[in-house]
Every structure is written in C-alpha cells, then in structure tokens.
Amino acid sequence: MVDNNKLIKYREINNDTQKTLANKLKVRKKLVVEWETGITEIDEDNLNKFIKLYNLEMKDLIKKKSNVLWYFLGVITSIFLSIIINTIYTDLCVLITNIICLSIIFIFVVNIKDGINKEPAIAKSLFNIKLDDKLSKRLKLYLKESIVIGSLYIILVNIFKVLELEILVINIYLLPIRSVNDLVISGITYLLITFITFIIELGFGEYIYKKGA
C-alpha cells in the first residue's frame, strides 16, 4: 500500500505544489488532494508516472509497518538502561528521569528517521528535518525537538551524577526528601531548558524558513 504522506514528502522535496504536480501528471488537482489525504488510493498508472517523474523506486512509497513495536522496544530498552545506571548510582530521581527521557528520545528518533533530508538548498530544522509550509506543523516540530533537547540535558546531568561530576548539576534543596527534591528540580530544569530551546528554535527556524522561501 502506498503511503500518502510519502507522496506529499517527495512532491515537496521537488518543490511542486499540488497544482503543478496535477499538471505534470495531467490529472485534476482534486485528485492529487484525495491521494495525499488518503481519501482515494493512487492508481497504478499515475503511480508509475509519479515514480518516473521524481526518479523513485516503488519501495520509496510503500507504507512501512507500524512503529508501535519500535516504541515498545524503545521503552523496554530505556527501562533496562536506567536500571543498570541505577545499580551504579542508586537514586529514584535518576531511575525515573532516565526512563522518561530515554523513551522520549527513542520515540522521537523512530518518528523522524524518514523525515531527515539531505537536500542542502531547503530550509531545515536543528535536526535536519525539512520545515513544512504550514506554521502549525513547524511549531509542532520545534516543540518536539525542544523536548528532545531537554531530555538529552537531563540524561547528561544524570550521567554526570553517576560519574560524581558537578558539571550541569543543579544543587538546590527545596524539599526534605532528597530523591523527591531532585525529581522536582529535574522537572523544573527540564521545563526551563525545553522552553528556552523552543524560543531559540522558533526564532532561528522561522528566520531560516523565510530566508529559504
């Protein structure tokens, strides 16, 4: 089965609009819209024309299996790695935050692995993903990447704790129970890092997008 999202992806990579693609395939624009939204399946004749037009192979457009299994493996791997770290540095905060952050990172990687673009001329995000023409999709991408950066920061902090290094480690005590206190501080720091990164990504991302438009 053809992945309608990949039809959109390759059309946009080749700087075609739905209208210009329709003209090249000699079909109505409405039909291209239906293919891309999944209302109708692209027929074999037009599929072959699409493949030839963009110099693709059939495998480039086939819908891949669900990522649910990869998500599950990612979470299990995250828990396993976190338990290993926790045997070295026994701390509830480290265990919980590592499981959450590693899971977030793994799921993000699974989601964006097909979106990474090697074309040098188009506007791309921090993680080398093509910026969509829709502002709402760009904002969602900025937020996802900011969440991952916040997660990476927390993972680094926990690694430094294991190595007994004070780099990036914030020692603030607001609560009497250390593990709970560390969890709260980690949460606050995570939100701050994510927010700051989002603002930076928003500024630079929109500048790059407008410059490349």
What does this structure look like?
There is one protein chain. It is elongated, with a radius of gyration of 22 Å. The protein is 67% helix and 0% strand. The chain has 213 residues and is mainly α.
Secondary-structure map:
Elements: H1 4-13, H2 18-25, H3 29-37, H4 44-53, H5 68-88, H6 92-112, H7 135-162, H8 178-212
Distance between the termini: 33 Å
Tell me the radius of gyration: 22 Å
Summarize the amount of helix as a percent range. Answer: 55-70%
User: Can you tell me the residue ranges where pLDDT is under 50 for at least 5 consecutive residues?
Assistant: none
- Class of secondary structure makeup: mainly alpha
**Biggest sheet features:** none
Mean pLDDT reading:
76
Short structural summary:
This protein has eight helices and no strands. With 213 residues, the chain is mainly alpha-helical.
Any descriptors?
434 Repressor (Amino-terminal Domain); 213 residues; 2 domains; 8 helices; mainly alpha
